[in-house]
């Protein structure tokens, strides 16, 4: 019996880009409504089309051009959560950027956030999935814009906006340049994560820990190239938000079997599994679990423990964790 037969097992996801999770059909339809021609970002079958990571960033930002209003983000959130819920996800943390939601102006950001939260509440009642937000500066937009984004995060920090991260091109600038933004978020009570160790190599992971004092790393897999760093990550309890399907789709590793997630886990690193930008990489949480099962023969008990460990690493409040723990116990009994 394959793991696929357990597709309704409850899952926790910590690394999902809201815009990057937009189904291509949703973006095409929205663009048509707005008489916007972005046909060049789709292939003949209507899927997103890109050549490498940097072209992926271009296509990603082009797709967001169809998202112009808070209502667009309301509809987007419902579409994304519907897809996640189909894979058994009961809790997800999504990266959301004020760069795309109101141009980093706090008042406009609040309007977008209100629309997203309204959709999330509908999804929680009708689909059984809980969403929380992590505000995300775009690294290649520069430190000055990141400060404005961090202020948006600080102004809306609370039980729903629970963290600050940083995404974008890891090779653009230095993480230390964003220290002010992370300090601002920390003072506002937000938890911290950062994309590193994907295209920037192990040094970028070390910088995220040393310069930004994060407790989670988005991706982080190239830490495996420096075993002393792997030991440090394990000793400090830094959690990796691993996205195997994304890493393979973008050519970082040739296959899931050759992905370092199993070795990282073996060496004591806390690893979680997420989809990153699922329609771009032809994946979902059920496929991620199935691929890992096929590659490493991890059993149900392993995946259930991973779900519990992932919940422990989530940025939501204690009451939400208690409720979700009961959901996991009931769904995965």
Could you characterize what this model shows?
The protein has an eight-stranded parallel β-sheet, with helices on both faces. Helices cover 47% and strands 13% of the residues. The protein is of the alpha/beta class. It has a single domain (8-315), classed as TIM Barrel (Alpha-Beta Barrel), CATH 3.20.20. It is globular and about 50 Å long. It has helices spanning 24-33, 53-64, 70-86, 106-127, 143-155, 179-187, 202-212, 227-236, 244-249, 261-266, 285-296, 300-313, 318-331, and strands at residues 11-17, 89-96, 130-135, 161-164, 191-196, 216-219, 239-242, 270-273.
Q: Briefly note the structural class of the backbone.
A: alpha/beta
Beta-strand content: 5-15%
* Element-by-element helix/strand order: EHHHEHEHEHEHEHEHHEHHH
Given the structure, what is the number of helices?
Answer: 13
The CATH level-2 architecture is identified as Alpha-Beta Barrel
pLDDT under 50 segments (min length 5)? none
**Oligomeric state of the chains?**
single chain
Mean pLDDT: 95
The helix content, as a percent range, equals 40-55%
Strand order of the largest sheet: 1-2-3-4-5-6-7-8
Relevant terms:
333 residues, alpha/beta, TIM Barrel, 13 helices, 8 strands, 47% helix, 13% strand
